[in-house]
Sequence to fold (547 residues):
Amino acid sequence: MDFTEFAQICEQLEGTSGRLETIDIISRILTGLPDDELPIFIRFVMGRIFPDWSPKKLGIGPNLLYEGIAYVAGIRRDDVVQVINRTGDVGRAVEELLAQKEQTSFFSENLTITDVYRDLTSIAASEGKKSQREKLLLVRRLFTNARPLEGKYLSRIMLEDLRIGVGEGNAREAIAKAFAVDPVLVEYAFQAENDLGKVALLARKGNNSLRDVRIEPFRPVRMMLAQQGTINGAVADNGAMAAEYKYDGSRFQFHKAGNRCKIYSRKLEEVTAALPDISESLMAATTHDVILDGEVIAISGGKPMPFQTVLRRFRRKHGIDLIREEIRMVPNVFDILYLDGKTLIDQPLSERRKKLEGVLTGYLAPQIVSDDTDEIDRMYRDALAAGHEGLMLKVPGSPYTPGVRGKNWIKIKPDVDTLDLAVIGADWGEGKRAHVFGSFLLACQDQDELIPLSKVATGFSDEQLQEIYSLLKDRVISQQGKEVRFEPGLVVEVGYSEIQTSPNYESGFALRFPRFIGLRDDKSIDEIETLDGIRERYARQGGNRSQ
Ligand code: AMP
Fold:
């Protein structure tokens, strides 16, 4: 498929608001694509490049992109930024700039989606000192051969933000429709494969191929997530529940095959090098090939440390041996997804737990199974007294559903009014903070969109503002006066006293007294609070709103 055709399809989808129509358009295209283009197309149309499990990262920030465009358009980088600010969108700006250039250039090659994928793979592969230079050359080459409409979508793909309303849900349904397979099996295969490109290929072969998917060591599986609830509610709905402490650390997935092991973070990034203590502990605790799910906590002087300490270690690249002595990282393992060649995610939790107990000596998170709410309540209070976050209640008969925040895992924690939100914009600071961002625009999510909810300007130390600045400075997409917009990616936790209705933000709500609590760079954008969640919280506030 020529990339021009892909861009035209994107243009058509951008102008389509109906879900069914979107699914229909995509499914018709999928049917006609050859096997080598099918996975590329399905990922591209969702604004992704590599499989979700893949550690490959493009590593192009908006700045590099602007430089590439500036070169191809024959103008200065600042002029590119001006056009972006005027159009409010990188894609449209690139389209406009390439259209001006097109009138003066005579020759460009036809790009196919495979060419683009190959070049993006080379960009991702470029590492080391000269990598920025190499990446820039490849970006320039791509844009030199791109027509204006291609440039629009190429730049959006590079920023992994295609904005044509095709999320995982639509893509899954389009695959099911195109190849007349069971949508439930498409979802199941996706949970295990963690790549809709591969799932599309399996779907083409039929239901049986989808049913037969297997998980494998060193291909990380998306983490199963929890919903908020109450002890009484969970027991009333399900009867006996498996109860475990809810540890206040960071999620990890441990993969072992033979004498090799790797550790992945909640965002499925490989963090093995940062956590040698976890590898050593778990390698010594099992002789089997396994994929384990658990939470790392940090212990110093026998006490759990705040979870930000764990996060810092996950991020750390150097000097690990030095800090290891002071702060010990301890794994608490609560699930097993794979054992000696067998995928276990279909089995009920109670079975998985038995297997886990059989293969792991030590580091098992203690668990009770009970329908006695008093007993569970006592465990909850013990958990809080010991410095943990609360309890996790899990339905004993439930399978492991990767990536799903369903009703089979219920988290019980004291009512704390905090939200995880995405940083989508900022204002430059003032006075001694003039060289960093001073206040931030935060968004929740609704369907596949980010919806502004509030600003936060308090709760930061100078060091934190500096750290956030360094995390965001290369994500600037546009700037107008003191206001900056970012390519979304960073998640923060904020506290608040109340949710109010407000005409100032698109969500229709705003936070009263928002304050920064911490970075949540272990979380990805699709894990932030939903607009429905905000509505629920607003409704729950009910009569006891602060004055
Ligand atoms: P939350 O981040 O508030 O949605 O809560 C879910 C998170 O709790 C999981 O992603 C884990 O990182 C963490 N967690 C701590 N203890 C457990 C446990 N026993 N079972 C499952 N998740 C746990």
